[in-house]
Fold these 4 entries.
Entry 1:
Amino acid sequence: MRERSETVTGTVTATGAGSATFRDPDLDARWRAAFDQARENGLFERLSEVYARVPGGRCSGCTACCAESVSTFFVEWLRIRDFLEASGRWSEALNRAEDYARFELARPMKCPMLEADGRCMIYEVRPLTCRIFGHLKAADYGRNLKAVLKANQRAAEEIFKHYGVRLPAAVVERSIPFCESFVSEAPMTSGDRDELFDDLFSIDSRFLMTGLLEPDQIQLGLVDWFAMVRLEGDALAEERVKHAAEMAEAGEKADK
Ligand code: SF4
Ligand code: SF4
């Protein structure tokens, strides 16, 4: 349910959580093969070229935009995972992301890669969505925001129909306001942004062709990639809704 470069927390993706090994033994092998494919075919260089086309800008580092599981292409994910493994922080990041996955529907949460001191744990390899935030012109940002809010409401309705649970309004209606303080060297339109996303889609298509990526795995949320490692999708979906129901119940009691 994530829109391109979405700006609002997603609500309904069903992914899961586990222990320290890959839940699906084939998954690790598939991702390692994909990593090799990327390296041998210069796909990481192509990714860097796309990132290099993002204009420069001045950011105050307020972290207001680090408020969700941002959409992440597979090639970006491969690089993030490699970066975390190389820096010895893979397990820590995995645990943080899984926590996010479990409670995302119950309460608004910051991106799990955000450190307590306001730094990004994966700053050097952060996804395109993070890199372009602040560059989008206000009108385009507003249109995107509206679309995402609508999608979140639709998703919340689906959850209600399926599970009989009303998600907290703080989750469904949550939005990241337009950033007034970022100074872009070249503000972008939706079209400019889409060109960059299309180029990443084209890189990911290479993995589709070799069967290392499934069509429904294009541009998942960052947390969804982590969750896939150890969590059972169906069990996680149930757990997420259960936490949301508990939160709603606690809210009702507090109101009485
Ligand atoms: S882009 Fe804007 S909202 Fe995000 S950290 Fe920078 S100043 Fe804050
Ligand atoms: S990945 Fe980093 S830059 Fe992107 S939202 Fe998370 S903390 Fe912020």
Entry 2:
Amino acid sequence: MVSDKLDELRAVNVARCTSVDGFCFALHDHSLLEWSACLAGEAGELCNAAKKMNYGRGSTKDLSDELADVVIYCDLMAAAMGVDLWSIVVEKFNATSEKRGVPYRLATRTPSPPPCPKCGGSGKAPGEGGHG
Ligand SMILES: [Mg+2]
């Protein structure tokens, strides 16, 4: 599911950005203006890759790399804002569909059930640290 993949991206993306063995850069080290400038920079690189392809240079791989950078920075900016990227995409997508009078909607995130208080969601059998 896409929202699960975005959850994975968020966890690893923020860890890579902020950890000592990663980029060692706290999310609050950038203002939202600076995060948006980073995002715009990647969008500019995407445009440049598309321009090169239009002139017969570059490749779909170059374009894909820059598109991925845009998504990665969208996630970092959303993390810096303290919002869930999937939730705001769903909200905006559905609002636009409503505004334009078309039937297409994305499903809102279904909250995960809380983990089992006995096994913490490990599912281990009794005697193995799970239910017992
Ligand atoms: Mg780039």
Entry 3:
Amino acid sequence: MTLLLPSVLFRWVGGALVGLAALILHHGLDEHRRRRRRPAFLYVCESCGLVYEDDRNVPLSACRRCGMLNAALQR
Ligand SMILES: [Zn+2]
């Protein structure tokens, strides 16, 4: 039993490292995608006040919370 302990520990540490690496990789890809994305248009919902972004170039965007159509803020 005592001989098995190091291999069990190895598996735990290995699993944790793989999980950590996957997290870092995922975060890195996310960051990359975020930077590549074109600047989004900013909207403030006139009905519920939700502030949200929409990167489609549309004159009116539907609020994600209540569905109200809002015009983009001027930047
Ligand atoms: Zn709304």
Entry 4:
Amino acid sequence: MDLACYICSSSCATTVEGLDDAVDAVGFGHGICHLCSVIVCKAHGQRVPGPPAAQYMCVLCVPSFIRKGGFRPIEPGDPTGPQTEIDQLIEAISFAPEPVLTKIRTELIEFMRRQKLKETAPVGQAGRNLAADIFSEEMGVTQFLREMNEGLKI
Ligand SMILES: [Zn+2]
Ligand SMILES: [Zn+2]
């Protein structure tokens, strides 16, 4: 049985950017999001490393993943000093397209400067919210969810 990607098969699919442009299996159900249980294709979902175990996550749930925080250290034994939370956040969503990652990193660094905080300090909830909002906007998640809601009201 072929299962279709929830995003690709929806009427407002075109607003959502794929996580990886190079994937060839667009549209075909590849994994079930462990957070919202939709079935998505390789372009609209990604396996996120554990602990506890690697779990599949759809692009629509990435913003709440960012908001939640608690990203893993990149290299726990790294003697070059503490990792910045910005680096950890970017690493945790490294499956996102490069321009989106660059924009999130740039805006977070700007955000830290405005707060007069070091770039290596934790970005906190406000910083994570900012990153999640940028991801949603850039990836089309915001628009997708808005159109889905409007569709439901009709
Ligand atoms: Zn898809
Ligand atoms: Zn999901």
